[in-house]
Amino acid sequence: MGGYLARRLAASAVTAFVASIAVFLIVRAVPGDVVAQMLGQVSDPEAAASLRGFLGLDQPVWIQYGRWISAVLSGDLGTSWTGGRPVGPAVFEAFLVTLEIGLLTLALATIVGVPLGIISGIYEGRWPDNLIQIFNLLGLAAPVFWTGLMLLVAVSSFAGWSPPLIYVSPTESLWDNLSILMLPILSLGLLQAAAYSQFVRQNVVTSLNQDYVRTARAKGVTIRILFFKHILKNILIPLITFMGLVLVQILGGVVIVETLFSIPGLGRLLISAIETRDYPMLQGALLVVVVTAMAVNLIIDLLYSVIDPRVRLS
Question: Do the Cβ atoms of 180 and 245 come closer than 8 Å?
């Protein structure tokens, strides 16, 4: 385990280095001139040249990258060009909001999607399976922004309620926090529950058609014992893998939902940084997203040997 973990961390470090180069270049490929945008209607060449020198944009790209990555390795993500605040605390604060949405969405999708997939697989071809398949198709086809808007219109029209506009952290008021995040979590969670349900259904159907299951059923083993003793154990590892993919996908979908519901998370921070061409903030936020995705994959791989001791990590 120790050797495997060391190799994975070394590989993750190399991947993070390559990702940092990609992030740095992609940020600078965003159309628009940051200096012109900051100066607005003022078209003074001297002022523009002075501002470029102040921001370090007059240097070659490889020198700009070297300075940025050196600061990152020393724990400094830089200072926002537009807000003047340190990037690290701003990204960390937004990341906590996004992480809360991601984990609660994952919990909702798991609680709803896994039982639906199991029922659908057990009753394959019958009316419970058909009803759940309709839910799965709608969930997989509906865009997240459309679902969010429909939920917002529905609760406003039928319940006369709308979520608060000002974000409140769970440490200040848990109820107000959940009131603000309820619709975004439902928007993402219902769609991911459909993907969950479809994935679990396919695994259950495949397991039910295995020879050892047919033999056990022929000997009179009940479906309940068969499921909890054999089938669930076999689909657990693919389910954990899918859970990691869903969590990364949720972090991507959060960009739209946070913008739609004005939630100050990482997605909204990214959109704001793109609009203002705030390179330090954009680079810092994207780097955190990449590192988070790698950490999730590493945790999932380590869980394999915990769930099934027969799996050897090498």
Answer: no
pTM of structure:
0.82
144-158 vs 174-208: helix crossing angle, rounded to 10: 130
Dihedral, 199, 201, 206, 209 alpha carbons, nearest 10: 180
Compute the distance between CA of residue 47 and CA of residue 42 in angstroms, rounded to an integer.
9
Per-position pLDDT tens, the chain of length 314:
677 778 878 888 888 888 888 888 888 877 766 777 777 766 677 777 887 888 888 888 888 889 889 998 888 888 888 878 899 999 999 999 999 998 999 899 999 998 999 899 888 889 999 999 999 998 888 888 888 888 888 888 887 777 777 888 888 888 888 888 888 899 888 888 998 899 989 888 888 888 888 888 788 777 777 777 777 777 887 888 888 888 887 877 788 888 888 889 888 898 888 888 888 898 899 888 888 888 888 888 888 777 766 666 55
